[in-house]
């Protein structure tokens, strides 16, 4: 069946049917302008104050600051001026921000009409954030006379007064009675706040000082009576045009040649649908193929660049790196990756043997093209030069294209993390007693001390946690996984960080918030303290509860020690009790909120190996910042 006459007819008829209903204004009296060299283009629907009314809409009126030439706009008659950061005419979105970096101070003073522009995305909670664009969430502001650390909340620093009161933004779904706060907090106001994702927590959010809005031409008054579609010609800065709907094939049956009509089994509608579907399939397949080709091309280019960077590093550090193997060697060592020991976000770990002497090894095979090679370089560059009884040995590596692998000495007793997680299901296990645990923790402390002081350069691990502590055949601890490690001079007291690194629950406060102090080797001390407390928690006799809510275990440990109460732990004799108390005191020193209050790892080792009578109780790590006592840390 020949459908060319039909298509030809549509090409001729369609332009004559589709005619704009409203006339465009003259382009010459509505030129595209900018307030400053770096400012956004100002064109329809935005309009400068002194331009003719047809150049834009009243609610999109902007002006230029006389002092800084910045683009300003009122969101309502009572809002005052907001600065416009960007305007995206293609996506019909724009961003405004407060010059004083304190949107919460201004938002309660007016109500957005949302008649022609509206928030790009309104969410219910922080877990609903699926990208890093602006999101608006209904929040309750609390004024607290003491610092609070609540879930589903974040502080508003520009409204808070350190030492006097803290302003918290809490998810509006929670009432004051449902929050774990006392009389020290009261409600200030409730309104929508712009929020964005935090880097360290997939369900965490923080204040965004930008307000992200969008507009839809169909909401403009000129488009209310348009039965088709409304458009703005941004390229020529013209006003809205309304185009009628495209006529369906049913509306032009008489124009179809009679030979087609004679085929009663096939209607015109099915012919047009068939052509449309075929065209769509062809175009979609072509687009997907092109996109896939471009993506693979970019991926190959990035991988070549990453491999070039890795090869340059290996060439520059030939004398420090261990033996290099081919990927074919790795397959032979693992017998074709036959026995898997574990799996994680980095890739998989397989059991293998060295080809030269048959020594058992653990081979970590990284995911293809995982990351940009920084973690691999970190691991080889740091652990490759370390030789210490409490640090795992890197025996070799492989790097071919996007395939990378690391070869370690095999640890037959897995990790300390596995012991902690298995205690709940196997309370009768006697593999660990308090003396052995103390030896393991002391060994970890010595390993970290070596990283901080025993090498030519100080090595900060930044991911000390039970799962990164491996145990050999005699249960001696070995620190592993140096993918997040950072090398620095021993004279450097401050470490620059572009982003938070580590595992939630073990990250020191200063790593993700500079208000608590500077990042340094004391950040590893905090992580070590949390590790020790988790090990102690694994030795609990029973679940510790208060009313219906579980008590924060480290805080309970502190309260018990202060009040001289017995810890609810599995203790065989008085010697175990002394060991448990010593470990708890050392851990509480290590997790002091401010880095300056924490001891060095050298002092930690001395506390662990010294007599219990010489230990003194640390200040309360869980008190509010206004109540923190000024104390001297144990001597370094």
From TrEMBL:
GO terms for cellular component: membrane. Its EC number is 3.1.4.46. Keywords: ATP-binding, Glycoprotein, Hydrolase, Kinase, Membrane, Nucleotide-binding, Serine/threonine-protein kinase, Signal, Transferase, Transmembrane, Transmembrane helix. SMART domains: S_TKc (SM00220). Residues 1-24 form the signal peptide. It is a single-pass type I membrane protein. The keyword Disulfide bond does not apply. ATP binds at residue 364. It is found in: Membrane. GO terms for molecular function: ATP binding; glycerophosphodiester phosphodiesterase activity; polysaccharide binding; protein serine/threonine kinase activity. The chain crosses the membrane at residues 270-294. Its main location: membrane. Pfam families: GUB_WAK_bind (PF13947), Pkinase (PF00069). Residues 335-623 form the Protein kinase domain. PANTHER family: RUST RESISTANCE KINASE LR10-RELATED. This is Putative glycerophosphodiester phosphodiesterase, protein kinase RLK-Pelle-LRK10L-2 family. It comes from Rosa chinensis (China rose). The lineage of its organism: Eukaryota, Viridiplantae, Streptophyta, Embryophyta, Tracheophyta.
């Amino acid at each position: 069946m020949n459908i060319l006459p039909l298509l030809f007819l549509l090409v001729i008829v369609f332009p004559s049917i589709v005619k704009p209903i409203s006339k465009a204004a003259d382009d010459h009296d509505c030129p595209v302008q900018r307030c400053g060299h770096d400012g956004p283009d100002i064109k329809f629907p935005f309009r400068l104050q002194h331009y003719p009314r047809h150049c834009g809409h009243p609610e999109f009126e902007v002006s230029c600051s006389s002092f800084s030439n910045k683009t300003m706009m009122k969101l309502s008659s009572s809002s005052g001026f907001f600065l416009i950061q960007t305007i995206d005419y293609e996506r019909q979105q724009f961003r405004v921000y407060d010059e004083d970096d304190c949107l919460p101070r201004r938002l309660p003073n007016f109500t957005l009409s949302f008649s022609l522009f509206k928030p790009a995305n309104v969410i219910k909670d922080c877990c609903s954030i699926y990208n890093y664009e602006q999101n608006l969430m209904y929040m309750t502001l609390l004024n607290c006379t003491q610092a609070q650390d609540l879930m589903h909340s974040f502080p508003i620093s520009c409204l808070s007064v350190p030492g006097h009161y803290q302003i918290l933004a809490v998810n509006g779904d929670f009432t004051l009675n449902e929050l774990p706060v006392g009389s020290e907090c009261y409600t200030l106001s409730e309104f929508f706040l712009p929020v964005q994702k935090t880097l360290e927590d997939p369900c965490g959010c923080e204040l965004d000082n930008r307000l992200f809005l969008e507009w839809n031409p169909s909401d403009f008054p000129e488009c209310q009576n348009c039965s088709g579609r409304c458009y703005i010609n941004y390229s020529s800065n013209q006003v809205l045009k309304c185009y009628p709907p495209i006529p369906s094939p049913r509306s032009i049956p008489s124009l179809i040649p009679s030979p087609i009509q004679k085929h009663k089994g096939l209607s015109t509608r099915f012919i047009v649908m068939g052509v449309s579907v075929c065209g769509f399939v062809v175009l979609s397949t072509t687009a997907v193929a092109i996109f896939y080709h471009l993506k693979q091309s970019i991926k190959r280019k990035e991988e070549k660049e990453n491999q070039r960077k890795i090869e340059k590093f290996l060439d520059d550090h030939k004398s420090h790196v261990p033996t290099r193997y081919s990927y074919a060697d790795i397959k032979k060592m693992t017998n074709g990756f036959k026995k898997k020991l574990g799996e994680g976000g980095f890739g998989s770990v397989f059991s293998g043997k060295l080809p030269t002497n048959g020594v058992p090894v653990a081979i970590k095979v990284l995911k293809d093209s995982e990351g940009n090679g920084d973690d691999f370089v970190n691991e080889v560059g740091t652990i490759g030069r370390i030789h210490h009884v409490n640090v795992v040995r890197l025996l070799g590596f492989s790097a071919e294209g996007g395939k990378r692998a690391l070869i370690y000495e095999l640890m037959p007793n897995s990790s300390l993390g596995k012991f902690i997680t298995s205690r709940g299901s196997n309370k009768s296990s006697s593999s660990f007693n308090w003396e052995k645990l103390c030896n393991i923790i002391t060994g970890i402390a010595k390993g970290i001390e070596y990283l901080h002081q025993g090498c030519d350069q100080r090595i900060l691990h930044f991911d000390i946690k039970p799962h990164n502590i491996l145990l050999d055949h005699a249960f001696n601890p070995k620190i592993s996984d140096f993918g997040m490690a950072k090398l620095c001079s021993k004279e450097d007291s401050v470490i620059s960080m572009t982003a938070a690194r580590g595992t939630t629950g073990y990250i020191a406060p200063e790593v993700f918030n500079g208000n608590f102090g500077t990042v340094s080797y004391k950040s590893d001390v905090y992580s070590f303290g949390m590790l020790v407390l988790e090990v102690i928690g694994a030795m609990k006799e029973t679940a510790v509860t208060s009313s219906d809510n579980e008590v924060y275990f480290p805080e309970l440990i502190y309260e018990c020690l202060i009040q001289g109460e017995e810890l609810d732990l599995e203790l065989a004799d008085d010697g175990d009790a002394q060991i448990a108390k010593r470990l708890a005191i050392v851990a509480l020193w290590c997790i002091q909120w401010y880095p300056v209050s924490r001891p060095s790892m050298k002092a930690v080792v001395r506390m662990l190996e010294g007599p219990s009578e010489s230990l003194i109780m640390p200040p309360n790590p869980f008190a509010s910042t206004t109540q923190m006592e000024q104390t001297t840390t144990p001597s370094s």
